[in-house]
């Protein structure tokens, strides 16, 4: 193996997750200008692999990938109408969560092991969960709390109170604004002043932004401005690419460049998902990543700066050497664009009383298929018509956390002796111990490099392979077919794009 593929242990800090030591700041070696590298049509396979090895995540992406388990909360008029996609002409008075308890949401999510929660502030129907200046299709038009309710305020305050980060989802689609002639009205893009002050506006913005937008694009910008300036720090802004149930010839070209600029200006630490430059949809709603999930993949730009897949969103291979070559004719950049795996705890995204949550076994398989494959899990837990998480779901969240804790109890390598060679890392546990789970992580501040690796145990006088992996990235969890008893363990790199630096090599014996 040549020197370009050698393995380095970066230092004690690089093994912080294993040793329990304080990690270096995420920005220590992160160069935000290296999160995407341009591709030339004449690039050879060697050029593409070299460029891919040089891509580095931004500080916000590193922070996001460390979250592992995040939550979605689909809540709105659909909760009360029984629909999954609303129509935009709902009577706001249908929204009546008489027992709204966002502290209960936060406690349940915290106790379930989640670190960030995203609220559907505006779904495709356009109903807004706070009193906006720019639409009447909001909680303020409901008799709930005499028109003074504000779900977003309560949600944001509760999440922070219980130590969770705050995310907001605003659907790009808006069927209510379509009915009012704003969404998909064919207006031209032009300079818009954001925020656009309205009659009786009591705000005194520090500055105004001038951004290109359509009529609806300006409406979205003003809505985003309210959310990002009046509800405290936001850690994730979640967009999808939905168009809603409008006539097929009435398509709104979204002002992605302006939306991204506004988010970067007002919430610079927030990750923009999943139609955004920071993280991508994994390509299914089952919560499962690919067996080999790359964080560096080929992308292209379209529709006013939208970050898009050079290959299809659901292709089985997004980032291997072969994929880089296949995608080259359509690729603008190789970009750090890690995967988020969304799935609902119930069959629907909004609450339906006739549905039951997934079993602990199902959720556990989803965990290993997402967090265990270099992705972040986004689990939807929908509040019910009372405005609380159903007791069955709350119990299931706690059971899920307990199961993961039993799957991955105490790391057996804590305090163990380690040695590093150009080929991998070896651990001496000090005595023979049974192992059936292995957790690996590259120090992604230095990119994602591993293309192939094997886990070996020293048994019966020789090294024996007990597991293998392709990609590793920020998190890879391997389950052995059966427990293996050994004192000496190692990971041996079989293929890599460049120098590999480790953040974690942990061994576990599940307590199931």
TrEMBL record:
GO-annotated molecular function: alpha-L-fucosidase activity
Keyword Hydrolase found: yes
Residues making up the signal peptide according to the UniProt record: 1-28
GO CC field: lysosome
Top-level taxon in the UniProt lineage: Bacteria
GO biological process: fucose metabolic process; glycoside catabolic process
SUPFAM superfamilies noted in UniProt: (Trans)glycosidases (SSF51445), Galactose-binding domain-like (SSF49785)
EC assignment: 3.2.1.51
Keyword hit for Zinc: no
InterPro entries: Galactose-bd-like_sf (IPR008979), GH (IPR017853), Glyco_hydro_29 (IPR000933), Glyco_hydro_29_N (IPR057739), TAT_signal (IPR006311)
Residue ranges of domain Glycoside hydrolase family 29 N-terminal in the record: 93-399
Keywords: Glycosidase, Hydrolase, Signal
Family: Belongs to the glycosyl hydrolase 29 family.
Name assigned to this protein: alpha-L-fucosidase
Naturally occurring in which organism (per UniProt): Streptomyces fuscichromogenes
């Amino acid at each position: 193996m040549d020197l370009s593929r050698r393995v380095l242990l970066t230092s004690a800090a690089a093994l912080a997750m294993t040793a329990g030591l304080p990690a270096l700041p995420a920005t220590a070696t992160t160069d935000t200008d290296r999160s995407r590298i341009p591709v030339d049509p004449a690039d050879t396979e060697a050029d593409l692999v070299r460029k891919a090895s040089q891509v580095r995540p931004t500080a916000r992406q590193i922070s996001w990938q460390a979250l592992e388990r995040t939550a979605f909360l689909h809540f709105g008029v659909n909760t009360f109408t029984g629909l999954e996609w609303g129509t935009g002409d709902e009577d706001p008075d249908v929204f009546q969560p008489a027992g709204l308890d966002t502290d209960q949401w936060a406690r349940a999510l915290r106790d379930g092991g989640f670190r960030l929660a995203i609220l559907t502030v505006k779904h495709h129907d356009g109903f807004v969960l706070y009193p906006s200046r720019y639409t009447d299709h909001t909680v303020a038009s409901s008799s709930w709390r005499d028109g003074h309710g504000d779900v977003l305020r309560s949600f944001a305050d509760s999440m922070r109170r219980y130590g969770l980060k705050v995310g907001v989802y605003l659907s790009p689609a808006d069927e209510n604004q379509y009915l009012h002639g704003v969404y998909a009205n064919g207006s031209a893009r032009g300079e818009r002043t954001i925020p656009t002050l309205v009659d009786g506006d009591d705000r005194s913005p520090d500055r105004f932004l001038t951004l290109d937008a359509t009529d609806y694009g300006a409406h979205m910008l003003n809505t985003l401005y309210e959310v990002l300036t009046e509800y405290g720090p936001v850690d994730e802004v979640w967009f999808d690419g939905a168009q809603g149930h409008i006539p097929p010839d009435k398509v709104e070209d979204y002002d992605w460049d302006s939306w991204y600029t506004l988010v970067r200006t007002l919430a610079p630490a927030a990750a923009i998902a999943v139609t955004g430059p920071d993280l991508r949809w994994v390509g299914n709603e089952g919560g499962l990543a690919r067996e080999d999930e790359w964080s560096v993949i080929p992308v292209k730009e379209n529709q006013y700066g939208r970050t898009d897949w050079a290959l299809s969103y659901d292709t089985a291979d997004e980032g291997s050497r072969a994929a880089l070559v296949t995608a080259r004719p359509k690729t603008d950049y190789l970009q750090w664009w890690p995967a988020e795996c969304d799935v609902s705890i119930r069959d629907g995204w909004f609450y339906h009383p006739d549905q039951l949550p997934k079993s602990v076994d199902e959720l556990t398989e989803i965990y290993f298929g997402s967090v265990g494959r270099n992705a972040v899990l986004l689990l939807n837990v929908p509040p019910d018509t009372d405005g609380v998480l159903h007791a069955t779901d709350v119990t299931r969240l706690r059971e899920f956390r307990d199961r993961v804790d039993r799957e991955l109890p105490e790391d057996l390598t804590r305090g163990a002796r380690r040695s590093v060679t150009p080929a991998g890392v070896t651990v001496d546990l000090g005595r023979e111990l049974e192992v059936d789970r292995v957790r690996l992580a590259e120090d992604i501040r230095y990119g994602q490099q591993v293309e192939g690796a094997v886990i070996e145990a020293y048994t019966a006088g020789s090294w024996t392979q007990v597991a293998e992996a392709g990609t590793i990235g920020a998190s890879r969890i391997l389950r052995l077919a059966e427990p293996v008893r050994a004192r000496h363990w190692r990971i041996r790199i079989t293929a890599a794009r460049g120098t590999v630096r480790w953040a974690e090599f942990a061994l576990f014996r599940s307590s199931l």
